[in-house]
Amino acid sequence: MNFRKSTISLVALFLLNGFCLDNAHAAEKAELASPLCAKALADNARSLHIAAEDNPELSQVAMVLIEAAMELDPRADYLAPLALEISSRASDGFTVPRLTQILRGYVTDESDLVVVHKAVAKTLDQLDSWEQREEFLGKLFRVLRKQNSVLASELAAELGTMWFEKAETQRAANYFSQAYDLNPYNQKAFQKLDALLRSGGGGFNRAGVAVNMRYRLTENPFSLSRALDLAGFLEGLASFDQASKAYAYSAELFDYLNEDSELPSMIYLQWMLCAYNADMPDICSEIADRVQKETGFDLVTQALAIKAAVNAGTKDTSALAELGKKAEQMLENENAGKLLDPLTIAWYYSFVLPDFDKALTWANRALSAEPDREEVKAILAYAMANNGDGQGETVKELAADIAEFNQTARLAVTLSEISDPSQQQDDAAVTEKLNAVVLMSPSSLAAQKARAIMQQRNEDYQPALDPEPVISELKTRFDNVVVPAFKPVDQLVDIKLKTSSDKVSQNSDLWAKILITNNSNQDLVISDDSFLTGSILVNAKISGDVNVSLGELISQNIQPGEPIAPGDYASLDLHLSVGQMNRILTIYPQADLTLEFECILEPSVPQDGKITSSLGSTGVLTKKITRPGVFLSRAYFSQRLKALSRGQAKQRVVTVELLANLLAEQYAFEAIEPLYKAVKVERSTLVRGLKKGLQDENWIVKTATLNAIVNAVGAGNADLLSSVSAHVNDQQWPVRLMAIYLLDMQEGKEFDKVMTWFAKEDSNRLVRNLAQSLKNLSD
Q: Which spans of this chain does UniProt mark as TPR repeats (predicted)?
């Protein structure tokens, strides 16, 4: 920090003031309390913390100041999160008992967990042994379990990890199980528990896996991979109606994320197969029409759409014959487009409109063009297996090596084995093999063929897959909604930036609230794995008598303690009068100002380099606030000066703050051309007024005066410095603490001797700690 230097020797000042505190603090017995002084200390702590960046010693000074603030106003809700944030960057974080005490009072369902995580991590780093860390986390878990389930879940998961590292798998599994029960969005707990269960031959059942996938999609409904994971899992269960809904969700999401892009085949093909199996001909037709429009003729989607209509009785099989003829003609005329080739026609005559002579012909053409392609070998083998020419050995040569991972190849090998009279197989063995084919991809036409064979061989055949238990569990957990309806951000969530007023007065503290309302019918989760991570960027500019663009004013993460329930909201607090904003508001008291704030949630940097919100316009919030300058009439100023002698303590504090700000304004306009027309008060009058505040009988007024000098003037005025130095002997510790903080702004080694004495001899722990922290900083 750069402050004005004084030519007065600090050591000499202390000698003049009687640098001896042997009996000065004898009266300091009663506990002191002052929300006003607590706020002053907290503001200084916040400013230091912001300035500290990667300087832990400076953050340590801030930590002492915030501890002092908590001492003076232990019930102030705003102090705990700031204290936790500061402690995470200080050279020495909170001790285990102190952090536990703070968290016990701070943690609720609405608490910001980001600052809690940081503070806990800092304290863990300070512990020397595994046993100390385990004891600390275990105590926090027991104390906070009923106060915040999300935090308790994270603590339990961390304990599980610690015990796992000790090879105590049963204890680890117990903690992971508790973690997942407390918070089903805790993916670390789920994955670790599932791995431990599997290592013992268990693991989550299908219902448990499906429920976890559904929670993951709830957490981030804009994750395409999560939507497709759920769709694929439901498809694998043969729950084709629900899988079709999940693929439809994925298609809507893809369109939302990729405007004007073609829907990928990985989405529309599986969506169509599920819709086909679920007897949804209208959906099949819609998909085929879209693919036709976007990519041109596609035999697969056209075939499935017509086949679904045939199954529904709205078309006859002649439409399929016409489609096959059309595809062959297009290929022969070299007018096939990018989605038609011999392999696709071979597939068509194998599964859609079975004609195995044609299938063989086209499969052989495909083999000639792509002799090493596995899918070509598989379809050729399947056509041979169905052609009845006793080509079992050839089928195996083509398909055996790829049957493990290619469904068509496995079906071909199975059919070859079934039809081989030399291989006698009972119905159970055949059913087992055919079920294995189905399980590879239950929605495919190859799976449909395998199911049809099993039904022909056994009228009492029951499918190997029964999705009902899984679907029932999903409905129970998610209020009968297996797959949610897709909603864009602006329908899913409503975000507002609010302040208590659009107009603020001198020395007002600027706070804003971000209100996030959940408009959906499921939880809204703010977490690192959600589309809402709690990342906030605030840009600011000031116009009017002073014009300056401050750029990035605030950059922070805030994560509420619990998911936001449907219809509910979360409120995130932002302190706006920080850094350069607070400095300008302080040193230009007579300026009429307009303060403009741009709050960006989930900031991202696209290719053009301009920071935007990943939430689009929903995540960009603006606010304008006016701050009229003080009208310094003779009558008003005279009234303020009289308040120093006759007014209530709060009025006296308001006056000294005004005097300090006016003095700062004069200093500012000595360095630069005045920015606006300002009434100039005699400097000696301002200094006398501040000295009067320093001489006040009320320790709160004295502390507030010292704070006003810190914020507005620093220690640059020699007359003020002399008056300030007298307060190191004050009976009340907040006055001494603020005095040595202000005096330490002087550069030079002379003051080190004074700080050394305070660090060892002062009667108050916080004053000693501040002196030591300031001394460490100067060293």
A: 153-186
